# Entry
Amino acid sequence: MLKDYVRPDDGLDKETRKEETKRLQKLLTAQQVSIREAKLPVIVLVEGWAVSGKGRLINLLISEIDPRFSSVFCGEARTAEANRYPFLYPYFCALPEDGTFLFMDAGWMEGAVREKCTKVTDEELFQRRIRSVNRFERQLRDNGYLVLKLFVNISKEEQTKRQDELRSSSTTSWRTSEYDEYQNTHYSRFRDAYSEFMEATSDIFPWHVLDGTKYGKLNYDAYLLLTETVSAGVAAGKYHGKAFDEYFPMHETPRLSDVDLSVKMDKDEYRKELKKLQDKIFDLHNRIYRKRIPVIVCYEGWDAAGKGGNIRRLAYPLDPRGFDTYPIASPEPHELARHYLWRFWRRLPRTGHVAIFDRTWYGRVMVERIEGFCTEDDWKRAYNEINEFESDLHDWGAVILKFWIHIDQETQLARFNDRQNDPSKQWKITEEDWRNREKWPQYEEAVSEMLEKTSTEFAPWHIIESNDKLYARIKTLRIVVDALENAIKERDD
# Structure
């Protein structure tokens, strides 16, 4: 129950608490420098009852922080457009940069509880939300985020009183809504859901329930908890979690060394198959849009393997208003300063749309691993984090297609030389391509481990033999057609 998380009485008299609050305010102001120097991102999640004073408390807390290094997220009811994205989408997109504060006026607790109590979701989906939140919070902790979770509590009677006061004046009536009244009417239902959510999500970052009727104690407790969280985080340094394995049903994928790259396709057969498959994809794109099925296509592969040409043949029949292609390069500074999956969450498609990624989040376990751009703990932990990410996307209803475009070393060398010697293609070859080629054995080892650990039943890897580009394109399009047809059939059933 909520009372199990209530802060104990501090025993301070009113004047002492007031002075202590001022001291803590000054401390928080000074801690901003420590946070920036330590490159620690801080999230303060302020949940609570409608009209409990969450906004007022956040306003008080941010008054002590340089606005250049803090932001506020408002987790009001999700809009129809926001509902076309996964549950965690708005919260992942809101993540702050290293060395800054994010204050959240309601977040993943309110999102899940509101859905449950207004009967938008059933109990099974509510439990999936809880599982996703626990994964999310653990990923935040393991990637160095400091998270403080507060819940501002008031009784039903107090909530009724405040709502009546707000509605009594045209100046303040806008501050209470039909949903607030619904929550008050079904107070016990919401109380039980909040309690269940807290009990299930307190292992990574604990919940702290604050009394919303005693402003002096509320302010003091919030400042004390925040400054203690920051002090402990700065003292400990940025946290990096260890790798661990959660069970996911796996799909067997052949080893790269066992793949037959001698397969070829006749040009006449290629032309006929290409037209037939592209016509099907044109029709299927319309159907997935009507059924609101999101599609995520991931391309990885060797340099010069033919990803670009493959993507063009897939994208050609798609309605340009219903898909986006994302060429993923090295992360920008503002991307490096956040969770490595942040830049991919922000690029997820709406329901009914297609996102094609030329390079993906798998860079974490390939180039970042081999080039030393992250720690060993970071890339080893990423296998599980990526499986969790794709599991959430699958639960959301996404079709996830992952292609490894495969060639041998001799074919790559021939294509490199062709690019180097053709002025119209020289832009395609860089010194980095040649350096990466020298590390072929390390990359092959990393790719093999990636395929083994992330080819799940809900998001399997497809190895595309691309020594012959024509064969590779047709095989890819056939897989796409089959996957989309199956997804539509499942929705029809």
